[in-house]
Amino acid sequence: MTNVECELAGSHGVAFTDRTKGVKNGMKGESAASDEELTSDILSHYSSASETASVLEEGTGGEQVDEQTAQEETEDKLKQCIDNLMDRSAKTRLAALESLQQAFSSRVLYDFLTGQRLTVCDCLERSLKKGGGAEQAAAATVFTLLCIQLGGGDEAEEGFKSLRPILTSILNDNSANIAARQSCAMTLGMCCYVSTAEGGEDLVKILALLESVFTSSYPNREGTLPSPKPGMPGLHTAALQAWSLLVTLCPASKLTELLELHLPKLQACLQSSDVNYRIAVGETIALLVELGRDIDEEFEVEDSEGLCECLKSLATDGNKHRAKNDRRKQRSIFREVLHYIENEDFTEERIRFGMESVYIDGWMRKRIYDAFKEILESGVRHHLQYNQLLRDIFGLGPPLILDAATIKGNKISRAEKHLFNSAAFKARTKLRNKVRDKRADVISRRQLLLSRNTVIRLVSYALWLVVSCVLPQTRMDSDQITGVYGKVSGLPAPVSAHVSEEQLPEVRIYTVTAEWIQSDLVQSSRLRYSQQWTLIADSNNHQSIRTVLPPGPCAPVSGELLSELSPVHGLRAVVRETGSQQLLEIWDRHGLRKCLNLSALNIHGRVYDDSQFGCLSWSECERKLLYVAESSRSSSAETRSRESTSRKDRSVYREDWGEALTGKSVPVLCVVDLHHGAVDVLQGVPPDVSPGQALWAPGSQSVFFVGWCLEPFRLGLKFCSNRRSALFRLSLDGHCECISGDNLSVSCPRLSPDGSMLIYLQGRVFGPHNQCHSVQQLDLKSWKTSTLLDVVSRPQAGEFAGVYEALPSHCWSADGQKVVFSSAVRNWKDVFMLDRRTKKVTSLSDNLSDLSKVYGSWKLLTLQRDLMVVCCSSPNSPPTLRVGFLPSAGETVTWRTLQQPVMTFDYPWKVLDVTPPSEEDNRCYPGLDFGAVLVKPSRLICETRTPLVVFIHGGPHSQFPAEWNSTTAGLVELGFAVLMVNYRGSTGFGQDSILSLIGQIGSQDVQDVQRAVMAALQSDKTLDPKRLAVIGGSHGGFLSCHMIGQYPDFYRACAARNPVINAATLLGTSDIVDWRYTSAGFHFSYDNIPTAETLAAMLQKSPITHAALIKAPVLLMLGGKDRRVSPHQGLELYKVLKSRGSPVRLLWFPEDGHSLSRVDTQRHGENHQPQEHTTHQEPLSRQAPQYKAKRPTANTKPRYVRPAAPTHDGKSHTSPQWENQTWVIKRWKKKRNRHAPNYFQLYWREKEIPLEMFSSITVEEAPS
């Protein structure tokens, strides 16, 4: 390097390096890095900020040099370099060209070069004509930079026309230097791109010229690729990349011609022996496909299957005849190409420069950015910041003008740079060392390392099943699994809706407001937000939607427990929780109208917002609100009379309503007078009932409510519609009367719009915890009750199957003659309309007999002003929001879609109808059948057959409709087929099917699941019968454990959430003790005392009796606060399997309940490392310390799950001191005698670690 060049590099900041090359800037094909190395490179991505900083430091930073003087010195040095271009010495000319190349790429010099343009062009022309190969290559590169500096205007076009013949001549000269020819190819492509109009004559000529170069690599007539001469693959690569850059300028007509001509032949070039050319071909194919799809949405590649197979082999290339670096180079690029060809999925990249960013969101944009980056190298960010040409190309607008204060405020100090780069270097070194370790290749085939903290049930299922069913045939990294989970679980779903109406002179306006819920993995929380749509209907025919306006922005809903709009004035009542306070807010069109601090008033306890008791109802005058809250102990008469009693009375046990309703013991009805701001607790509710689901009666002088019987003791209410309850009417003066039958179960009272009729659901007490309901109607004029819709015992094919779900809060038609609701029907969920006059039930969705229908599940959110708002989904289509008006007699609904899901999936699904053989028929209820839903991946993951996961629902009286399920979608995205089984006893098949399971658990349902699996395997030969796994929760976990016990050689893995393992030991610990008797076939009464016969029958039906036969690995996930199925059930199986050396793993969530749905469960279930189970292993959990111990199997790190149970000192060890700690058990040299037999226990007792933790630990010596 000459002195001039060194000075330029030092004074103009051109000597910095681009540390992110090959990762974020789209140059993956030039980085010989594995996936892990690419990840480690990203750690240093921000170090590129030094590039911008080094440029900005001139004039704003350290050197106290006059800006004009520095500019003059720079120009003098540049002029010296230009003069050196005419020197007789080839070495001097080459050095000058290299100096100009660095200067042009690192600075924007438009003003200077405008005056020197002709001189520079003449010098470059001389070098191209008379210089050697290296000088020609450098001159061509400098000319490209000159065109970029001049901005592609008339000056650049004039210079290109003068030099183009020379560049063309060099490119066509087979005797010319290869490097010079490559540089000329790149120059012709870039200069044509920046200086030629789209569709111009020059563009066509340059395209043809470049084609003549790289087409020599196309296969010959025999279909074989020619053997390239030395250096030719590099020339072909440069020509192909320049050509693909110009293709982005071609009009549609020319592009169609190029696609037909080159795309088939480029596919053959994927087998080239040169890795860089293979990568260039792959990126060009992706670019052409993207451009083709832009022209025609239905564009398809000929022989797409062959192309995908070829790309797949390159993305997973393990051929030993290729160099290891070459294999690593191409894998990441061809994975991206394959994902785009198959799924139109492109991984967006963000390029940061200064205070701005540019997004690379497609192959065309990537090709353009890569071309500029190749020529500008590390100066590309500076040009993006200040070069108007690049800013125009990438749509960045005029350059930002920043003052010194702004620059200084955003500048990173040298100390911060040093600290960040040091940390990034350490992290990168650690990861690379791990990759370079020869053992990593072996271990990585047996374990999946989890690199993120967001691990919940889906990831637990997937990791476990991947290890047990797929490995070692398929390798799946943790980033892929967590990425899949993030994609499928982050999709929003509507949970409620409201409709308002406004009549204008010519049109009628409907406003639909929907509330959505969405999981946010970054914040580890569930977000709620609302969104509005405006529907314009004809004034004459208001049920004909003329226009749907675009939706408004999403508005986050923070802290809202309950909300309700008043029917007349549109006031919005909100019960909001802020910290420990509960507020009642009233909003109108002008803002917040009134706010009451309910907690500060201390009239009652916390407001109920659950679906069992919770309500918020406006009175007709819209001056009062009705809701349910916990009674206040301090304000109750009983408590005031006992204030003088001893403190020990506070320890008296207070019953509540069980699972998910902990602390909800004595609900009361509360009325707020908005005019006076007063809150009153209604008196007169019978003391032996708990009120809920309240609403105002006509006239607003009394209220209706459901009262649940609480004597002699409460039973769990969540998911149990068979609790003894009645419908009551309570006047404001305290008079209460029961208006429904005795010894029944009632719920969901709904008042007609005209106030003349009240409907509600009615069912049996005890028996199945969920069952088919009848719909009762109460005439409020005559006070007579009649059955509007009876229980369906056994529906015929294609007919209505009964009511199994709660009624929506708004379900009446405007005329009060129709009721609309959602319910299960076999393997589907549908929306039905019940006509009160004819008692006829009509389906309002697609025809159930049409198996090609898009949606398998329809759920009614609301019906107001005859406008229905529904949520539709299917196993491959996330929730969609749709609207439609109630149809007239003999007509169908015209549905309009308001909100499509962000993404849909193309994997197929179908419904299976299964009829059990005669030997498995139920004697009391013969002739019953059942069903299942089979969902398959759209493509195989490097396998010939697809592994199958059998997914079993809990309940047992619930259903798997053909709807969106994130767990199912995640597993399918990972390459598994999923079979969701609706065994006999599931809802949607009639009351007889539900009753048939009573007394038959552990046998009939197990046979049904196995029968469904066999039917799926017989109907679809692509499923792999040798790789089956089973998962489920609650009763689904009960059946999962039965399957691996009764069919030990059939299933390869099992994952169970809070499973029932031993029904006998569960009897005294469950909040639904009645179901424990009923499920085993025994009659329940409150005064039942277990007998030996009862316990023996329960034990015989339990999975624990088959535990000795279990061979498959088992994953158990238990909630420490589960009141429905005690976590000791799972621990019982865990201990049995552990004692027998069977592979078992347990995840313990001490603060979660039966459903494991807490957000912190999603955050805390982290960093467990599944491994292939060939020997005994300890379970894993974040909630307990890890222990390093000697084991028969190498490379294992067993951990222990510590439940919240008393230990030797009577303390519970689930305190915060246990969390986030890792303990390495070694003999540390202390003052005590470390060789004493009990030394270890004595030492760790001081750490409050329970002794039983050491029962199976082998101590290893630690260094002094």
From TrEMBL:
Subcellular locations according to the entry: Cytoplasm
EC class (word): hydrolase
Enzyme Commission number: 3.4.19.1
All copies of domain Interferon-related developmental regulator C-terminal, residue ranges: 387-440
Reaction equation(s) it catalyzes: Cleavage of an N-acetyl or N-formyl amino acid from the N-terminus of a polypeptide
Residue span of region Disordered: 53-75, 1157-1218
Quaternary structure, from the entry: Homotetramer.
Family: Belongs to the peptidase S9C family.
Name the UniProt record assigns to this protein: Acylamino-acid-releasing enzyme
Organism: Ilyodon furcidens (goldbreast splitfin)
Lineage summary: Eukaryota, Metazoa, Chordata, Craniata, Vertebrata
